[in-house]
Design goal:
By secondary structure, the chain is an alpha+beta fold. The protein is built from 8 helices and 15 strands. It folds into 2 domains: 219 residues, Cupin (Jelly Rolls), CATH 2.60.120.650; 58 residues. Helices cover 31% and strands 22% of the residues. Helix 6 crosses helix 8. Its cofactor is Fe(2+). Pfam families: JmjC_2.
Length: 307
């Protein structure tokens, strides 16, 4: 699956924008509108099994307190917290009081998981997915910077995006920011259109006045200083086979000398490109994603008639 081509209609143009770090709107011929629909959210709310942190309610001022949509529930005689009340969520959406944010959809939605896996393969980066459903005329998040490049796929309704530019150097942090009154880039996204927001570009988005808005955000994570240091620490820690507790001054000095020699040897063979590759690889989730690769027979197979 050439997912970048399906998202943009021109994979080479996207990778060029990624390297130039310039916002870009794409209007592909075959956008991935079939991944998530509002009807699926209704289904999940009806099941009663949605939990935080996979679902959160947010506004331009911050997160909606959990008691407003996650009342305590009695399960097997115990009081459990964090289960989402579908009626409360629907009420807050209808009142325009909150945006629904579904986090890490790639961990539990098969179609989205497949898209993220394809993007990881094509880009060589960690990719995650988030889904936003915003009431008409409202803003679900404050002006903020994300620590990721973001693909915004408008799936239903329309949303107006305002971008205020990126940080001037590497000394910045993700989160809410103060920005000039006038944005540098504004676009109204309609269903099927895709917006690329470069990492660190401050932005906000407001649903159109008529009808709610739904969009998928695919975050493309990049390594930072902490990932580079962790990769280097891992490389140096794995060099050689040394005694854990040398005895005496001479043994300690010999162990220190061996450690320095091994570190110099490892560093001499390491390029900046190798270190960056190790850092990116280290960002991947540890262990299998639940529901990822098939393991044994599917549940439905167990009900099939046997000869």
């Amino acid at each position: 699956m050439d997912i970048l081509h399906r998202f943009t209609g021109a994979a080479e143009e996207f990778t060029g924008a990624l390297h130039r770090r310039t916002p870009r709107v794409f209007r592909p011929a075959d956008p991935p509108l079939d991944l998530l629909r509002a009807a699926e959210l209704d289904h999940w709310l009806d099941t009663g099994l949605l939990r935080v942190p996979y679902l959160q309610l947010v506004t331009a001022e911050g997160e909606v307190p959990l008691p407003q949509f996650c009342p305590p529930r009695r399960v097997l005689g115990r009081t459990e917290h964090g289960y989402v009340d579908g009626s409360a969520v629907r009420h807050l959406l209808a009142e325009g009081a909150a945006t629904v944010l579904l986090r890490h959809v790639d961990q539990w939605h098969p179609g989205v998981r497949a898209v993220c896996a394809a993007m990881r393969s094509e880009l060589g980066r960690q990719v995650e997915a988030f889904w936003f459903v915003t009431p008409p005329g409202t803003q679900g998040r404050p002006v903020h910077r994300d620590d990721a490049d973001v693909f915004v796929v408008q799936t239903e309704g329309a949303k107006v995006w305002h971008l205020y530019g990126g940080p001037l150097d590497g000394r910045w942090a993700p989160g809410p920011v103060d920005v000039p009154a006038e944005p540098e880039f504004t676009v109204r996204l309609e269903p099927g259109e895709v917006l690329y927001v470069p990492r660190g570009h401050a932005h906000r988005a407001v649903a159109a006045e008529r009808g709610a808005s739904a969009h998928l955000s695919f975050t493309v994570r990049e390594a930072g200083d902490a990932h580079l240091r962790a990769a280097l620490d891992g490389l140096l820690a794995g060099a050689g086979d040394r005694p854990a507790r040398p005895l005496g001054e001479a043994d300690l000095l010999a162990a220190a000398d061996r450690l320095l020699t091994e570190a110099r040897t490892a560093l001499a063979a390491l390029s900046a490109e190798d270190l960056l590759d190790r850092a990116r690889a280290g960002m991947e989730a540890v262990g299998p994603v639940p529901g990822g690769a098939p393991a044994g027979r599917r549940i439905t197979d167990l009900f099939a008639a046997t000869p």
